[in-house]
């Protein structure tokens, strides 16, 4: 890996490392990004993209703030274009005013009150991004998030029933079970539809979600395959089209059905009365109500946002929960401490049933944060540098792809003592108050941060508290020998292999 230092005022010219194009497995990809820790900037070259300029930024300094907090550099990297056929111009892939407008609209859907009512069940470049972000932001308001808590609880209880059958002293991979639980939660909160993934693993929609995610990875590591060749000559391209037809068809039908339902309700009830009567509004319902009959958001806009929420909202939380269970399974002392916190909070109950209870689980939140520090669901993100910027002694030219190396930042010894060790106490208030704000960015940062991060934390606390309250978890693999894999997110290559032991009630 050759790095050329530059003086102030000079452009940085970076060399492409010698990477074997034939090695396109996920472990090779993450190795390229993770293992090179001793240089501030480098080019990934053909492993991630061809004929593109890449830089890597690993410091939690003003460099990251200059990119992540800058409204000029909000356009996602070129590799996100592979998601356009599925997600269109949703919050993940859009930019400019559409992103901003939709973000603002959606945020209230994640208001605190919306979460609590659910507790009994649980790319265009340019102006479009600003527009979407502005519209969508209200959907994530804290009060609205309360309504989702009912869903979290219902799905947590169903997951416990499934895991009861695996508390037999044998080793089980519980990654698929938690994946299906997270998918059930996201389908019901995002679209108001119960796909019952935990019981119906052969559901066509669920299968297509997984297929498209895998195909995205296949395309991302083979950027040299022409689009025409992929779309018209490869069997995988035809499968991709068939899966997209299933996904879009499902979303379009749900949108149409929910629009008709809302229209009937609004004919009989005032808006506030309708919300009170239903108790639960899905993310889709809130978008439909904000769309003003298609004048503000078209059905295509709504589908793009719902599909984006589906895509981002189940795999990332699954990975986070599974890494947390893996770490607790390797640290019985920490697991016992959080178990005592959960028992004290819940008393005789199996699952948390309110936002207030979740807020009391402060040590569990420290554990989740430390898990996300060690194993961020998204280990790196990309930004397109649209204008030349100066980062200390480096001048970064325009039209460069910046790789913001979250995994590297989180293990930087300048910010964390013994950074490879699992220590939830790092996130106690007295230990984290003075930490650099960009030293911990599992949900990204700046205007393009994860809009659903509060939703994710509440979901994870509900599911994890329920599991730890019911079972003692023992991991089979250790932090030293676990293999890391990434397709779209960071995950344990072999799943989460654990032994579950029922705790006395």
Automatic annotation (TrEMBL):
Heme binds at residue 450. Gene3D superfamilies: Cytochrome P450 (1.10.630.10). The keyword Transferase does not apply. It comes from the Eukaryota. It holds the Pfam family p450. Keywords: Heme, Iron, Metal-binding, Monooxygenase, Oxidoreductase. GO terms for molecular function: heme binding; iron ion binding; monooxygenase activity; oxidoreductase activity, acting on paired donors, with incorporation or reduction of molecular oxygen. InterPro entries: Cyt_P450, Cyt_P450_CS, Cyt_P450_E_grp-I, Cyt_P450_sf, Cytochrome_P450_Monoox. One of its GO terms (cellular component) is endoplasmic reticulum membrane. The keyword Coiled coil does not apply. Signal peptide: none annotated. Its cofactor is heme. Belongs to the cytochrome P450 family. This is Cytochrome P450. It comes from Popillia japonica. The lineage of its organism: Eukaryota, Metazoa, Ecdysozoa, Arthropoda, Hexapoda.
């Amino acid at each position: 890996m050759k790095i050329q230092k530059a003086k102030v005022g000079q452009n940085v010219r970076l060399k492409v490392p010698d990477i074997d194009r034939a090695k396109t497995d996920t472990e090779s990809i993450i190795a390229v990004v993770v293992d090179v820790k001793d240089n501030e900037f480098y080019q990934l070259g053909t492993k991630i993209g061809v004929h593109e300029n890449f830089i890597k930024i690993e410091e939690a300094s003003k460099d990251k703030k200059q990119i992540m907090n800058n409204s000029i550099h909000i356009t996602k990297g070129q590799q996100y274009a592979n998601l356009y056929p599925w997600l269109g111009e949703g919050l993940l892939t859009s930019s400019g005013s559409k992103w901003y407008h939709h973000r603002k609209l959606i945020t209230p859907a994640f208001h605190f009150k919306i979460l609590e009512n659910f507790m009994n069940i649980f790319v265009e470049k340019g102006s479009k991004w600003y527009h979407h972000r502005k519209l969508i932001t209200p959907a994530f308001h804290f009060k609205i998030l309360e309504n989702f808590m009912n869903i979290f609880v219902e799905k947590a209880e169903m997951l416990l029933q499934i895991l009861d059958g695996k508390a037999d002293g044998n080793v089980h991979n519980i990654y698929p079970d938690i994946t299906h639980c997270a998918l059930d939660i996201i389908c019901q909160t995002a679209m108001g539809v119960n796909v019952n993934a935990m019981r119906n693993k052969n559901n066509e929609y669920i299968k297509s979600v997984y297929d498209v995610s895998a195909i995205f990875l296949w395309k991302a590591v083979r950027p040299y395959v022409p689009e025409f060749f992929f779309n018209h000559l490869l069997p995988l391209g035809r499968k991709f089209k068939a899966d997209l037809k299933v996904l879009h068809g499902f979303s379009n039908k749900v949108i149409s059905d929910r629009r008709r339902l809302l229209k009937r309700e609004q004919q009989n009830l005032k808006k506030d009365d309708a919300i009170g009567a239903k108790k639960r509004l899905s993310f889709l319902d809130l978008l439909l109500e904000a769309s003003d009959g298609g004048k503000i958001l078209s059905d295509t806009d709504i589908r793009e946002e719902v599909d984006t929420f589906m895509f981002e909202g189940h795999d990332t939380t699954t990975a986070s929960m599974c890494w947390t269970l893996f770490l607790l399974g390797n640290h019985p002392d920490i697991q016992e401490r959080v178990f005592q916190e959960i028992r004290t909070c819940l008393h005789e109950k199996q699952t948390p049933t309110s936002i207030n209870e979740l807020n009391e689980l402060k040590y569990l939140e420290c554990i989740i944060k430390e898990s996300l520090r060690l194993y961020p669901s998204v280990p790196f993100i990309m930004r397109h540098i649209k204008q030349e910027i100066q980062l200390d002694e480096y001048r970064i030219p325009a039209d460069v792809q910046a790789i913001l190396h979250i995994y590297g930042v989180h293990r930087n010894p300048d910010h964390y003592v013994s950074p490879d060790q699992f220590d939830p106490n790092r996130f106690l208030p007295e230990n984290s108050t003075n930490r650099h704000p960009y030293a911990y960015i599992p949900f990204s940062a700046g205007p393009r941060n994860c809009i659903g991060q509060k939703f994710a934390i509440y979901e994870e606390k509900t599911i994890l508290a329920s599991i730890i309250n019911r079972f003692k978890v023992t991991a089979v693999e250790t932090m030293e020998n676990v293999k890391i894999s990434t397709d779209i997110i960071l995950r344990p290559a072999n799943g989460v292999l654990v032994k579950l032991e029922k705790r006395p009630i």
